[in-house]
Each structure stands twice: as C-alpha cells, then as structure tokens.
Amino acid sequence: MYIITDPQELQQYVRCTKSEVNTVVIVPTMGALHEGHLKLIDRAKELGDIIIVSIFVNPKQFGPNEDFAKYPREFENDCKKCESRGVNVVYAPSVEEMYPADYDTKISCGEITTILEGAIRPGHFDGVCAVVLKLFNASMAEFAVFGQKDAQQVMVIKQMVRDLNLPITLDIYPTVRESDGLAMSSRNVYLTPDERAEVPMIYAGLQKAASDLPRAESFLREYYSSAKYFNVEYVAVRDNVILTAVRTTQSKTRLIDNIVV
To answer: Angle at CA 70, nearest 5°, toward 64 and 76?
Structure first.
C-alpha cells in the first residue's frame, strides 16, 4: 500500500497503474476510520481494482465554532486498517497542499445547500463540494463510494456531479449501525455514558416514523421530546428520506441520521 500526499503524484500513480481492464474507486473520508468506513472500502473492492482512500480533515467544511481542532485524528491506525482491507493508496494531502495561500475558488450547489444542515452550518456544503471535487480530480476515479448516513451531503454531491458533467459514478452504501441502531460516526467517541445509552432512540424514532410519512415530522418531535440527553435541531422529510439532527446536552455532540422510506 502506498501513502501519497501530492495530487500530481497520485495522478501519476493512477496513469501508470491503470489499464483498460481495471477501474479506479475512491472512498473519501476524514479518517478516524470505523467499521462503517471499512464497509465502504469493501464495497469499493466490489466495484473496482485500484482502491484509493482519502484521509483529510477538511477545514473548509467546519464552521468557526465547530470541532475542527479536536476532530479525532488516528492516521497511523487508519493506515493499518486500510492495508488490512486491501487498499492500494491512502491519499493524505496536507491543508497547505489542498488549499495553497492563493486558493480562491468557491463551488456552490445552490438552494439545496441552504436548508437543514446548510442552514445550521452556513458554508458547510461549499467546503464539502470543494474538497470532493479536488479528490475526484486528483484520483481520476470512475467510482466514488459514500455512506447514506450523510444523506444531504449525498444529495449535494449528486447535484454537483450532474450539473458539472463529472465523469464519475456515485455508489451510495446503506448506513452502518451499531448493534443497538446508532449510526456509526467518528464523533460517537465524544458521547458521555448517559448520552450513549440514550441516543439509540434516534434510529428507533426514525423506524417508527417511517410507517406514517405524512406525520413523520410531528411524530418525531413528540417522540424525541422525552429525551433527557439530547435536543432536536431539525426533523424533515425530503422526497423518500426522513432526516434528523440532534445535539447532546452534556458533550454537545451533533449527531445526524436518516432513514430511506
């Protein structure tokens, strides 16, 4: 397995390694890899032959009062997990490499980036689009694997791929969950024991709400009102997806989840 930090070096690797009979797949991550990420890697191996996992904590998708500084960074351990899963390249550029001092390009996907997560985290999806497009270009991948847990992010990236005619196919993998239903997330390590014991009701509520889509939003607000250790930031139905975000009361952790109906 190779560890590459320079985008031109990654492109050169792909040019030298790729042939007419193999396919490049990228799995974009911010590291702190858990079993959910590893399932994405396994899926990537079903789609292609050259598997690239990016590990980059993207400052442009964090707001000024968010957890960029304390976001878990476990690079050495992440690389071991990637190697054990048969990854060909870990792409780990520095912030300076991704965003040089004279970097001044912005990518916005419009209205979809201003609601729900976008309303609470202004500019978040502009940062997501910038980093994802750069990862697509550096990897020259034909496929990219994302998790369904970040449902609005998936919608935004699908729109960017469509609107910009990007030559890449998105593969969306179902949310990977703990045995009690909690969606796997690198931020779960922040949770206190009291919070961790209660947050499985997030998914339990989504499951119950899925049986009555017209009432899903009102049902979830009532269902979550009994929680002692988290508060709802939003619940919403968009197309066939019920989405929610909560913030815990002790560790102030934001957790997002959704269910496809």
So the answer is: 135
Q: Does domain 2-173 have CATH number 3.40.50.620?
A: yes
| H helix intervals, 35-111 | 35-47, 75-84, 95-98
- Give the residue among 79, 143, 121 at the shortest CA–CA distance from 254: 121
Contact 230, 212 (CB under 8 A): no
- CATH for 186-260 is 3.30.1300.10
In the chain, residues under CATH classification 3.30.1300.10 are: 186-260
Per-residue pLDDT of 238-260, as tens digits, reads 989 999 999 999 999 999 999 99
Residues annotated as part of the active site: 37
Are the C-beta atoms of residues 30 and 54 closer than 8 Å to each other? no
How far apart are the C-alpha atoms of 54 and 141, rounded to whole Å? 12
The residues, ordered by sequence, that sit 6+ positions from 160 with a Cβ below 8 Å of its Cβ are 107, 109, 129, 132, 133, 166
The pLDDT tens digits of the residues spanning 196-234 come to: 999 999 999 999 999 999 999 999 999 999 999 999 999
Beta strands of 67-184 (E only): which ranges?
Answer: 89-91, 143-147, 169-173
What is the C-alpha to C-alpha distance for residues 46 and 61, in angstroms, rounded to an integer? 30
pTM beyond 0.85, yes or no: yes
